[in-house]
Amino acid sequence: MSRCRLFLIDGHALCYRSFYAIRDLTNSAGQQTNAIYGFVNAVRKIMRDYKPEYMAVCFDSRGKTLREQKFAQYKIQRPSMPEGLISQIPLIKDVMKAFRINLFESEGYEADDIIATLAKWASQSDMDAVIVSDDKDMFQLVNKNISMLSFRDGEMRGVEQLKKKLGYEPHRIVDFIGLAGDKADNIPGVMGIGEVTARKLINEFGDLEKILKNVKKIKPEKLQMKLEENKKEALLSKELAILDLEVPLEKDLELMKVQEPDNNRLFELFKNFEFRRLAEEFSVEEKTQESEITVEALKTKADREKFAAKARKNGRFAFLLEKEDDVVKNIALSVGDAKVYILAFEAAGELKTLWEDKDVVKVTHDFKQALKDLAECCVITREKSFDVLLGNYLVNSKQASSTPSDMAWEYFRRSVSQENRLAQETDVVYESYDVILRELKKNQMLDLFENMEMPLTFVLYQMQAHGVKIDVPFLKKMSVECAAKIDKLTTQLYEQAGEEFNVNSPKQLARILFEKLKLPVIKKTKTGFSTDEGVLSRLALEHDFPSVILEYRQLAKLKSTYIDALPKLIDPKTKKIHAEFNQIGAETGRLSSRNPNLQNIPIRTELGRQIRKAIITSEKDLIMISADYSQIELRVLAHLSGDKTLMKAFETDQDVHSYTASLIFDEDEKNIDYAMRDAAKRVNFGIVYGMSAFGLSKDLKVSQPEAQGFIDRYFARYPDVKKFMDECIKSCEKQGYVKTLLNRRRYIPEINSRNNGVKQFAQRQAINTPVQGSAADLIKLAMIDVQKELARKKMASKMLMTVHDELVFEGPVSEKQQLVTLIHACMENPIKLSVPIKISVKTGKNWLEMKEI
Prior knowledge:
This protein is an alpha/beta fold. The chain contains 36 helices and 25 strands. Strand 22 and strand 23 form a beta hairpin.
């Protein structure tokens, strides 16, 4: 009969390991949860892989340990526990208690000593013990009944395996530490004796005492002298390494027995930590509603009319589209009567009057996609349309994912199973309407949702549907030229390196940079020496090779990301690209785009600008018009801060960057040169983004004191900007969120974090969001107004795309002046600011070659 096993987990070590192994995990309340998550997964893996009969987790005590009393320098060099970990340890203990795993800690003792005491007791109680740790101090405990399981590699090791690893018997680790010391614990050992010598002495003489007794036999004499001079330190070091086997503990094997966990408590804990998968797993509630939802097909015309009548009487219905290989097959519908109705897609047009009914609320998830999918058979009215995806984003912009299944969990704490998934999710979409509507009202964001985000969905859909024409022959020519430049740069790099190598391999590049060219190592990573852009930019100041690598990378990226990729995105039917514009991509409210990402087309390099030349009008007799906001974020900052000096710059139509330069350099504006203006521009925008002196010094390539001087002089000239920024931070610390001009909220609970780095980043977000978010809301309103006017005046001109603060249009030459006038009226007056809003308008045949009008 096999002996039962007691698994003893080094809780203190596992806390640290989990904390550093997993980064950036925080719940919406701002509580860091990375260590909790890692700890739980590690413990569950042990339970899953080894199915232990008995288990205990051991922690260090908070007070001064007995070793510290013996040796004041013990572990003194170790940094104090990070604030982010301190707050998680009580929560980790709560989780372990909910798993009904016995915890041990004892005043004055370390986890190692507790584990040693329990391991000895288990071994004497006819049990085997498994110590879960990577601490080499524990090796002294290993015998035929006690083994070690490594966190690091998952290997189980007994006496023979450890003997092979160490080169001596595991219990001799205390003698080894007596000789070689332990840097991790600041145990001195014998000065000048390293691992190799310590191992040799142990194998020759045995324990430390025998080594010291036979010191006269040890050669060379220099080593003999070291041992004699440091005899006291050696013996103390061994004493510190010896684990206490007699820690006073209450040992009850029944309490250490692995039991069924407290699922209710684990569910609550994991729900609060926002570990959704874990919470679902331990939920004791009914997880799905498939048994409560019946599915009914709307097969006949009478069935469909009956459903339409129900929807009208109810005042709303929800729908989701079922796709197969990106083709819509069915539409699932719900009116909240515990049924989900399935309508074949080809019959969707028969509910045309319902889709267009201005008195019935039409609820779905991702309305913009639904508009595209339903375009062939029916038109959904803007009135009474409700997108739970958008609504959920407004009330919970921090939520990483927001599928109907996520909402089922977030709002109703229930799971959606694979079986009958479409019906369950449709029911969730219907029910989410009430929850989200209530939250929008409570947070005073219903107006933002109804009068901006929902109307904008229809505008973006029209933009996406219209698409943009690409000059394919021009891009092909660019591709050939770019390939030739890349080949030339590759040859140049081979010549400078004195050999051929894989330019795209960071490992091979690092070898050339740091081993062959002997350039200084700037930054190390887990896999070796970093060759990222920041490193190469610094090295480029010393050598030409890194600057050629940077040029190579830039060309290769532009070629693969845009020059070669854009033609592949052309729709074969429309002969255009149809970029997707995303309303929920950023917590500030800014729009993003993908397929392609128009926001990232570079304009600072000549090649990047040339890509814009490939975006042309869809017809030869049309013109392209671009309207770009002038320094809109700084104008918003002037309005929000009410700073008189900054407002004056805009009211008198001055170049705000030159104006700022004249103030911070204390020079007449006519004496401001390009470098001074550029520095002021970077300060202006850096302030908006909450940039520190450190960040500004890197951006301007000046010293931190010089950068701080710029910031100090800026605030001296614009004192109300500083006051506004301080108030943003203070308000966010109190409320947990900041708001834009139109009441968009961004929750930033991290602003009250005890982790200084996390807190500072949150402060920058608190400053930036009201400015950038308000600017984003402003351009969204302008887009809605422009589209409304284009439709009202029945103009042929179309809005093509939006990129940051710019709107791009195309239209017939005959509408040019009318369109320009319309754009000015809509873009310069979406909301009233205390300073003028200005745009610059350009026109041409492509997006690059444009002249200002």
